[in-house]
Amino acid sequence: MNEALQKAVRLRMERTAEALRKNQMDAYCVDTAADVVPLVKTLLAPGAVVSCGGSMTLAECGVMDLLRSGEYEFLDRAKVSGDELEALYRKAFSADCYLSSTNAVTEAGELFNADGHANRVAALAFGPKNVIIVAGYNKIVSDLAEAERRLETVAAPANVQRFQSKTPCLATGRCMHCKSPGRICCTYVVHRFCRTPGRIKVILVGEALGF
Q: I need a labelling partner for 108 at 20 to 30 A (CA). Which of 56, 141, 189, 203 fits?
């Protein structure tokens, strides 16, 4: 990344991190994806019960490999299906830590997320003792209106391509506010403030990650 752009990105990350802290979320800024795993390791106790939402960001920065390293009791959604997957979603609510990315984080320190089954947004809102969010700088937006636009024009269409969901945005590349059975953006949740100080921990990364 160009040095001038890198400095501008870092300043925006730091402004956003400070806003998150004012909303009682812990916030960290790191320069690269390679910095994420060492930081996450300091936030997880050895042997902790951990779970996660589906996330390209976690895969891209090596967090998924860390969770599968054997150092933790990982409730791995990739290993189960059907009724077992449903049971794992519910078991995740009692995890020591839930890890995910976010669809967007505003400069006011708000987290914006949409979900299909709502298991991810439910775990972010309540249940696991701690939540760790990893987000590339590309997820930072000015406000909630931009967060929703980002969801409808970037995150949802890209994830539909990944899953090959039978929804209109598979063909159009933008949200059509459909009523399709395969719709992936059914439940919207905004975190404006963390009632339990520090339960949510946000790691902002100076690289573009995920959708």
A: 56
* Bridge partners, 74 (sequence order): 50
With a CB cutoff of 8 Å and minimum separation 6, the contacts of 173 are 153, 157
114: Cα separation from own chain's centroid:
10
The amino acid sitting at 199 is R
pLDDT at 204: 98
The C-alpha atoms of residue 53 and residue 59 are separated, in whole angstroms, by 11
Contacts of 137 (CB under 8 A, 6+ apart): 9, 12, 13, 204, 205, 206, 207, 208
Compute the average pLDDT of residues 68-90.
94
Q: Within 10 A of 45 (CB to CB), how many other CB atoms are there?
A: 12
Q: Read off the amino acid at residue 121.
A: V
Phi, psi (deg, nearest 5) at residue 196 = -95, 105
Q: What's the full length of the chain, in residues?
A: 211
Convert the pLDDT of each residue in 169-197 to its tens digit.
999 999 999 999 989 999 999 999 999 99
| Per-residue model confidence as pLDDT tens digits over 90-107 | 999 999 999 999 999 999
Tokens coding 210: 């995920």
- Is residue 7 exposed (0-12), middle (13-18) or buried (19+ Cβ within 10 Å)? exposed
Q: How many Cα atoms are found within 13 Å in the side-chain-facing hemisphere of 52? A: 26
